[in-house]
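Dear colleague,

Thank you for sharing your sequence with our group. We've completed the structure prediction you requested, and as agreed, I am returning the results in plain text so they can be pasted directly into your records. Please verify that the sequence below matches your submission; if there's any discrepancy, let me know and we will rerun it promptly.
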Amino acid sequence: MSSAYHLFKEGKKLSESGKFLEAIMLLEKAKNYEPEKGSIREVLASAYYNCGFYRSAKKNFIRALEIDAANDFAHYGLGLCLVKEKKLTKAVGHFKIAFFMKPNSEKYKEILGRFT
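Please find the predicted structure tokens below.
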């Protein structure tokens, strides 16, 4: 098992249990090992977002989308960051993309309903 993978798994586990700052520390290390892994960027961005570090979250969601434009959750997360910046038209665009990629997602339906 690679160091990046171990750090990612542990960081994801911490994030899922609400320990976002601790998760960020491990996920940043994982990102340094594997900067082109969209999965690491996605979880890292979510942890930043949940800590209120929206600029860092946005940067990592954007990078996750550069790595994989078909990452529905990264579109959703980027949309949330854009809402924080009051860029609602751009945010809705990303919410729509996420929804069309995964139309059965209640989370995506709900956020679209809130802004459209």
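Summary note from our side: Residues 3-16 form the longest helix (14 residues).

Kind regards,
the structure core
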